[in-house]
Design a protein that fits this description.
With about 190 residues, the protein is an alpha+beta fold. The chain is about 30% helix and about 30% strand. The protein is globular, with a radius of gyration of 21 Å.
């Protein structure tokens, strides 16, 4: 569904990126700590899933489920006592799916230091609560150049995921498992007979 780039009036049932942007802030408390004294990655992942749902549900005005999560690479650790800020927006929409971009920052109040913790992309799917089937989502009104660029990157990430899935399926079909087992001698494993 391609829309005119220079159109002055958006089509009906399209929503702006800003209309569903969400910011979530949470103080990292001692019960979130792991044995190393840092905040568990799972706590951050849970907050990311929460903000992804809120953003997608706000855009689609429907119940949403998490379909996939792109890689989550923790760039910097989060310490207990820091304030974590998650910023999320819809980057790309398909028929029933939405890519939610999430940026996570942590702030050390005492030292006045802000750190980028991670960035990730969640694919959320809108679900009809009666049929439990996927349901169409509103289109996206792109008002700023950064929103256009994020939409383009989201489109490429969606295609990349589809290509990866296809290539991995082909690999599974064509892989010679016996040949691969012989290569394990150079790996850090031991096959017990």
């Amino acid at each position: 569904m391609t829309q005119q780039f220079a159109s002055t009036a958006p089509p009906p049932n399209f929503r702006t990126v800003k209309s569903s942007q969400v910011v979530l802030k949470e103080l990292m408390i001692p019960s979130y700590a792991n044995f190393g004294g840092k905040v568990h990655g799972g706590v951050i992942l849970s907050l990311m899933d929460k903000i992804a749902y809120t953003t997608a549900a706000s855009h689609s005005r429907a119940y949403c489920v998490t379909a996939s999560v792109d890689s989550v690479n923790f760039v910097n650790p989060v310490d207990v006592g820091e304030l974590v800020t998650l910023m999320a927006s819809i980057n790309y929409v398909g028929r029933s799916s939405m890519e939610v971009g999430i940026k996570v920052m942590s702030e050390d109040f005492k030292r006045g230091i802000e750190k980028h913790t991670n960035t990730s992309y969640f694919t959320m799917v809108a679900i009809d609560e009666t049929t439990r089937e996927s349901t169409p989502v509103p289109g996206l009104i792109l008002e700023e150049n950064i929103e256009v660029e994020r939409f383009i990157w989201g489109k490429f990430r969606k295609q990349y995921r589809a290509d990866y899935k296809k290539q991995f399926h082909q690999l599974k079909t064509n892989l010679n498992m016996e040949k691969e087992k012989t290569k394990l001698l150079a790996e850090n494993c031991f096959i017990k007979s």
